[in-house]
Design a protein that fits this description.
Layout (H helix, E strand, L loop, with lengths): L1 H55 L7 H17 L2 H11 L7 H15 L6 H20 L2 E3 L2 E3 L1 H10 L3 H11 L3 H20 L6 H6 L6 H33 L9 E2 L22 H5 L4 H14 L7 H6 L18 E4 L6 E4 L6 H20 L14 H14 L3 H6 L11 H31 L8 H13 L1 E2 L15 H5 L5 H22 L12 H11 L7 H9 L6 H6 L1 H10 L8
Parallel strand pairs: 3-6
Antiparallel strand pairs: 1-2, 4-5
Length: 597
């Protein structure tokens, strides 16, 4: 009996020691996470402010902003990638059985963030930061010219959107590619530096590093991209054929080309063709012509507020850069729309160049989707280290869905932008949407993902950049250059994301799939409306549904978030189903026409 009591007493002491040890590890880990977070927030904000200036105050010959940005970025990189933080984080993760799920997620986020800037290769990191800044300045500080006059990218885009003169279109398209040669050496240098820095932590290359945040290998991600492309190819083949024949008529071409000439597409990279379709009764450009750029953004805010989200903070309006600079302005800025969570707290901003037209009406609603995502997951239950989307694609999906919802006819009628008695052709409306969303998949899942995979994983030589780009563009998009484009050009370099948001364009392809899954659920299960004819405005239950997705940030597994919201795993069924009526119509239109994809 005495021995048994001693044994039991010994067990209790052992359990107490184990529990104490677990508690000690847990507490130490939390202290480390809290200390890391406090220092990170300070450095992150300084880096964001400096980057904001380099994107909004670009002056030729002025190196001060670049220097300040370089200093701030280096300080942030040195902290996040410090050998000390890497070693400490790895040590805590070795005891993951003694940590909470929230702690593990934060530690994994710390380690992932260290991957692109590990200080065990400090000199490489410094060079990469400097190269990043130089590439940004070249890209956004470039002066485009057309017919001997300075033009903005908005002016180039407007020609490609609307002008029917093939010669003017060709000149505008060629102008949009002038910056490419200036960026080619920089891209090669950045590719090498990005690869080398992540290789220091055991990643094969930068593309593989970016993909790993999804919990996937490069092979798995590319398989997913190919699968999406193949699922949507029957629709895209019809759209491609239709576009070739219809545009040949518009441009008075004596022949219909087998592949779409790049300057025929109403986008610099052929990634969406929506503006080539004008839907009768849905002339949004005309409805917006007398509106101000400020009205466009305010109207977007009203949509979110009607769903139950708060009004945007005063600082958003004070600190954002929402409207274009004059084309002759000495000061230039990045004209690519973006949303910024400056301090991972309350300072949210957007960088846009809003004009009163359909494109910017949709884009403004999209960017506000990011802003409201930031606002939603900035709450006490989500630590700053996990203030991000469920995955990167979710962030884009929410924004794109809201941009799409703002263009549906019932919504436009409700907002007084379209006459409720106006008659519109539902097939033409679907066609316009497919020219945007469905056309985008071959670009995102096909062209961009495969080019960047070749660039980083396959170490594509610089003297093959342009040839490889056009080989891939032809294969996936069925688009060819209007004239010979040798290696003196770098047309891939003209795409913003390849320079400053690299190796993750598959995010956008995945986001469109998630978009249609979420939208179908909202339409059919919440609004009880046809997914092609919805009006989100004032539907607070839709706002509640979105908040459930957005509020947890990255504290939950993205696949669990999607399954919990829709009851489904990731699939393209909703997108294919949405456009089913259009496919039959296109087949009828394309009878007797030549298919080349």
């Amino acid at each position: 009996m005495k021995l048994k009591k001693l044994f039991i007493h010994g067990q209790s002491l052992l359990m107490a020691v184990v529990l104490f040890s677990c508690s000690d590890v847990n507490q130490s880990a939390q202290q480390y996470i809290d200390g890391y977070t406090e220092e990170l927030l300070s450095l992150y904000y300084a880096s964001a402010e400096a980057s904001w200036k380099t994107n909004t105050q670009i002056i030729e010959g002025d190196t001060l902003n670049a220097y300040e940005s370089k200093q701030a970025d280096e300080a942030l990189a040195a902290f996040m990638g410090s050998t000390k933080n890497i070693e400490k984080t790895r040590k805590f993760l070795e005891s993951s059985d003694q940590l909470t799920d929230l702690q593990i997620r934060q530690l994994e986020a710390i380690l992932y963030s260290a991957g692109s800037n590990p200080q065990i290769v400090e000199e490489l990191v410094r060079k990469k930061i400097q190269a990043d800044i130089a590439q940004t300045e070249t890209l956004y500080g470039f002066t485009y010219t057309l017919d001997g006059k300075k033009v903005s990218t908005n002016e180039i885009d407007n020609i490609l959107f609307y002008d029917k003169d093939p010669d003017k279109r060709l000149a505008a398209w060629e102008s949009s590619k002038e910056v490419g040669p200036e960026l080619k050496d920089g891209l090669e240098n950045l590719r090498n530096l990005r690869n080398q820095t992540v290789q220091a932590l055991g990643y094969n290359d930068y593309f593989t590093y970016q993909v790993s945040e999804y919990g996937l290998t490069t092979e798995e991600m590319m398989y997913m991209m190919d699968k999406l492309y193949e699922e949507l190819l029957p629709l895209y083949r019809e759209l491609h054929t239709y576009a070739r024949y219809e545009l040949a008529k518009q441009y008075n071409s004596p022949e219909v080309p087998d592949y779409l000439p790049a300057h025929w597409a109403p986008n610099r990279w052929g990634q969406d063709w929506g503006t080539m379709i004008k839907v009768e009764g849905l002339d949004i450009d005309s409805a917006l012509a007398d509106k101000s750029p400020e009205w466009i953004v305010k109207e977007g805010e009203k949509l979110y507020v009607s769903l139950g989200f708060p009004e945007l903070p005063a600082t958003f309006w004070e600190k954002s850069s929402l409207y274009p600079y004059p084309s002759d302005s000495v000061v230039k800025k990045n004209n690519h729309a973006s949303a910024w969570h400056m301090d991972l707290k309350d300072d949210v901003r957007s960088l846009m160049s809003v004009q009163p037209n359909e494109k910017w009406f949709q884009t403004s609603n999209h960017e506000l989707g990011h802003i409201y995502y930031y606002i939603s997951y900035t709450n006490p239950d989500v630590p700053p280290l996990l203030r991000g989307g469920a995955n990167r694609a979710f962030h884009e999906a929410i924004g794109s869905m809201m941009g799409a919802a703002a263009l549906q006819k019932p919504y436009l009628v409700g907002r007084g932008l379209i006459d409720e008695n106006s008659k519109s052709d539902n097939i033409q409306k679907l066609l316009a949407e497919a020219m945007d969303y469905a056309v985008f998949i071959p670009f995102a899942a096909g062209t961009m993902s495969n080019f960047e995979k070749a660039l980083y994983v396959d170490d594509l030589p610089k003297d093959q950049f342009n040839a490889k780009w056009w080989e891939i563009v032809k294969k996936y998009q069925g688009i060819v250059p209007p004239n010979e484009r040798g290696e003196e050009f770098c047309d891939a370099c003209t795409k913003t994301h390849i320079n400053d948001d690299p190796a993750q364009y598959y995010d956008y392809a995945l986001s469109y799939i998630i978009l249609f899954q979420l939208h179908q659920h909202i339409a059919e299960n919440i609004l009880k409306q046809d997914p092609r004819e919805t009006n989100y405005y004032g539907a607070t239950e839709v706002g509640d549904f979105l908040k459930e997705i957005m509020r947890p940030g990255a504290t939950k597994d993205w696949q669990d978030v999607l399954k919990g919201a829709t009851g489904e795993t990731l699939n393209a069924t909703a997108m294919v189903k949405y456009f089913e009526p259009l496919v039959e119509w296109l087949k009828e239109q394309n009878k007797g026409r030549k298919y080349t994809l």
